[in-house]
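Example 9 (inverse folding). The structure is encoded as follows.
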């Protein structure tokens, strides 16, 4: 009976078009790199509801690049580089978060660690458009932006009380000049769901409304390492997933959606032995290989 149920479940999953690690045709030479865009300090209670707000903890701002034979994919873009010289770009938030960003944290300098320039990036995938993830999308005018459609519009005009994390200038640069018929000169894939970027199952966007209206995660199926999920802020720390901890309400647009995201991560861990990489977990980020080191 049990066997029957699990067989039926497997058929149900397959019929939904989901691809597992074993089915993905991940090409040889695929590599995953982790980068930093500086750090900030905030109360842990923002990232795990009911955790203390004092003393503040320092968290990294992580982002990632995947090299694929058909093109390089950037997952998140860090803080806007303007912050290196102009703290006022974030208004009050730069001092509130004690944002630290040096010239070495600039996105060009980070990409240069693996010999890439912004124009070498084919696809820019943003987990969401908050200031520490969508900050530098404007630096990739010749790339294609992959974003959930509702996140794009929300970044331009969010609802209260969720406006704080979106910097108007980060989204504004996406609009084309006045008098141009196309809304953005940058090519865009505006999603309302999941997306298999190269059609081989190796890099797949997973829609996950929760932290923000249009958050998304990225599944990277590496030939040797196996499946790695880049969570963005859909999961802040490892134990958020392990213990079902949701963030403070201002960072939880849809709390039930956040838990659905955790359940999806757990299913991926169970079905294809996936691991996951977060953007801000200090200990997990410390343990991660950083560019120019890589996962393959
Ligand atoms: Zn973040």
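The amino acid assigned to each position is listed next.
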């Amino acid at each position: 009976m049990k066997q029957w149920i699990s067989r039926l479940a497997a058929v149900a999953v397959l019929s939904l078009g989901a691809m597992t690690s074993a089915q993905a045709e991940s090409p040889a030479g695929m590599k995953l790199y982790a980068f930093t865009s500086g750090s900030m300090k905030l109360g842990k209670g923002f990232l795990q509801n009911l955790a203390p707000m004092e003393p503040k903890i320092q968290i990294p701002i992580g982002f990632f690049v995947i090299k694929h034979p058909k093109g390089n994919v950037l997952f998140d873009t860090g803080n806007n580089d303007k912050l290196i010289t102009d703290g006022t770009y974030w208004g009050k938030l730069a001092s509130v978060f004690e944002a630290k960003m040096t010239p070495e944290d600039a996105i060009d300098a980070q990409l240069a660690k693996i010999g890439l320039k912004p124009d070498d990036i084919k696809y820019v995938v943003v987990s969401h458009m908050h200031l520490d993830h969508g900050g530098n999308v404007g630096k990739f005018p010749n790339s294609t932006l992959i974003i959930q459609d509702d996140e794009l519009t929300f970044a331009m005009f969010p609802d209260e009380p969720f406006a704080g994390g979106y910097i108007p200038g980060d989204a504004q640069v996406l609009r084309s000049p006045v008098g141009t018929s196309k809304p953005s000169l940058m090519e865009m894939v505006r999603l309302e769901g999941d997306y298999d970027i190269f059609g081989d199952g190796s890099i797949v966007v997973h829609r996950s409304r929760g932290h923000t209206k249009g958050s998304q995660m990225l599944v990277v199926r590496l030939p040797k390492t196996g499946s790695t999920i880049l969570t963005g802020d859909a999961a802040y720390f490892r134990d958020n997933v392990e213990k079902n901890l949701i963030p403070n309400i201002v960072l939880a647009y849809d709390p039930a959606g956040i838990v659905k995201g955790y359940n999806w991560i757990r299913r991926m861990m169970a079905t294809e032995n996936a691991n996951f990489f977060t953007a801000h977990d200090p200990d997990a980020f410390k343990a991660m290989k950083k560019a120019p080191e890589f996962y393959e």
